[in-house]
Predict the 3D structure of the following.
Amino acid sequence: GNKIWSMAEDGNHNMWFGGYGGGLWKFDGSEFSHYTVENGIVNNNVRSLYYSEKWKLLFIGTQFGLTVFDGNNFTNFNKENTTLDYDPYIMGFIEEENVIYIYTFSNDNLAYHPQKKILAPQPDSLGFNKKAFISCFKKSDGTSLLMHRSGLIATNGTDTLLEIRKPTNAPFNKDIGQVFGLTEDRYKNVWLASWEPDPKNPGGLFLFDGEKVIRKNEILGKDPLSGWSVHFDKENNILWFGTLDMGLFMVQETPFEEIPANTYGLADFNISDLAFDKNARLPNGQGNLIILDKKNLIITHSDKSFWKPSNKQLFKAYRKHLHKAGIEDKRAGDLSSFKKVLNFKEMTFQNDSVLWVSSDPAIFKININRQSIECLLRGGYGDGFMLFNSLGQYCSVPYWGPYDIYQNIELNDERINIKNIPVRPKDISNIVLHEDEVWMTSWSGGLYRGKDTLFINYNQSNTPINNALNDLCFDNNGNLVIGANNGEVYICKPQKDSLNVLYTIDSRDGILGNSIIWLKVDRYDHLWIGTNTGLNQLDLKQLYKNDSLQMFNFDEKEAYLAPSGNVSVKDGSGNIWLGTDESLVCMHIGNPIANKSPVKKIRLQNVEINGNHLTENINLLQDLKHDQNYLRFDFDIINFINPKKDHFRYFLEGLDLD
């Protein structure tokens, strides 16, 4: 049924679901089993579930009593077989060393003693023993959370640590509602399932981070008003959320966080470049993220505030420059036409606070600290990438065309004549500054390396890399990683005038996609490969240690939201930020999902000997008879998100060579 009231996970990683009127269900990863009063539970209105790891017991709280399941048998407790004169309506459980405290709805609080297997009233001596509360939960740090009809109380059992009535982002400025379900994730956040009959005071899914409560219905893709149960599956990193009005939701824990455009007052994103200032690039640094949208420049601050220069401010600086230079621009001569022509492209820092931005129809110099804007050149110059070389000269690197250098860009000096230099980079797709040198990939010319006006082109020599390159980066060992438009990734050891290509990796090695868009290496030695169709993670430690290619793919099934990623940049904490045609995405590299091994735990489902199901434990090496020589093993893994990606291989030790 749709009314899922409670969820729990047992020691064998089975998922248990309790429903109003429907009884109890168990999901073992492949199929459901159903239990009702006919199978031994006390009542079919299952309100709450709790599994005790210590006692290996599943507690099933119902509207008319308690059932305890030991893995084999159900034992019931109600007024018929206890000293109670009522059938307890059980709302929640809190486990202490040798007792399970049980909270009931408008009745006495109870205590179950596992060693004696008895249920008895509990004197009102604990801080959470109050009939006004409708649910309770004990965190891993020992803090108890008590939920009343319109708020949350955090207590250590004797003192109130915190009390919250309203979430920070609730519509209509209403309270949290009636919370019946609570669960803790791996970050010690507590998720709340809230029910509220009044549509003007909506319930749903909430997150308590230890300081505040935040409504999180947006991660569901829908807006349920009646949240009823919630459970975090730690093995599979999944949040299960049961509702009264929309059924059961499965929310995958993901390292990908999408920041919506309306965060910055925009209707949508079309991001062309991203950058962090010096402070944000320091380890755990707090600085500015600069987002260059096609039509907007946004300077964000660590306190969540931001500055977005208006079109009017930009046009004023542009008109001032034209007037000073004695130039008339009929194409963008008024604010209306300027808005239509304006198209931001790339940006670069000259120093800690001065940012240069290329666009149609001009180049702008932005002082972030002063929030001032200057216009220095009309369009056509710097139509693409920009950088300042070691001599302080401004270098214009067009998408299509040759590399140019200006002696003093602020004086509008003419370009330095570099037409006669032996190698002049052209058609540049990306630039990386590494150890005081400039590395460039080209749409047509391959790989360039140089400093100031002196460059070499590796593709002019006999180098086995493609001429059409899209991105490059360096790993933590100093190796050069190059991404090609044909879907190949090259890991190289650069020499003075040649490349020693250590590995060439493509779709045959597991890369999802046929064109490499961007590359980044994180602090855990994972190479992240963004392609035209998805995201790939390669474990470089395993590759360098034993030539083992361990590739893991992310796509929309794993909540990867940026297949059209245009640009990537790392912050000081090691997180990778992606700008796309539609969104801004932060990949939280510290998240265990971003760093997990792609290998999941194998679950042995069945063993057969000569066609007979094995029902008892035996030693296969010692207890088999001479005629028991046909063995069958059925195994699986739990993958709720994308089971089509599951692949298996086996090795017979002593028989198989590899």
